[in-house]
Amino acid sequence: MIHPDAFIHPTAIIEEGVRIGAGTRVWDHAHIRRDARIGVDCIIGEKSYIAYEVVVGDRVKINSHVYLCAGVTLQDGVMVSAGTIFTNDRFPRAVTPDLEALWPSEPDERTERTLVKEGASIGVSTMIGPGLTIGRWAMVGMGAVLTAEVPDFALMMGHPARRVGWCCRCGPRLAPGPAPVCAACGRRYLLEEGRLRERED
Fold first, then answer.
1. Using an 8 Å Cβ cutoff, are 23 and 5 in contact?
2. In CATH, what number does 1-167 get?
3. Looking at residue 36, what is its pLDDT?
4. Domain boundaries in the chain?
5. Model pTM?
């Protein structure tokens, strides 16, 4: 079901069974495959591809030329920058071992699941390996190649990506130390056993 308050560009391709929430905008030449679910107030950029049964939360920004393969879930408030590519098959082949048939594109037992948690940002032209979790409010730098799990609030850069620091909910990098305070917004954090968490006091 497509909500009547959603905007769909006339050149976009929306397949059967897709659900799109109120206020979401789907721009030119985007392609959303069957049974994908898109939340409210999202932006789907031009020429982006969203595969079968992908789940996109509310207020998600997907920029142009993004490839979301089957098995991907984006929670609320995620940002996926232009040219980002997700993958879902650790041992990809075009054909069956006997060369008699193409492997199907639909999700099956080989499809690995990727979860991008709330508030995370993924930089331009990032490559994301299969079966990963990207933590809450993490930030992945442009051109990174992700091959491992990403902790909450982690700042990731490189090929393969490594954690180079921590970032605040509001975006800026946090100063190093066991109890960083964001210089921009004043939010306070604690670093314990290699994980950053927000202070509750």
1. yes
2. 2.160.10.10
3. 98
4. 1-167, 171-201
5. 0.95
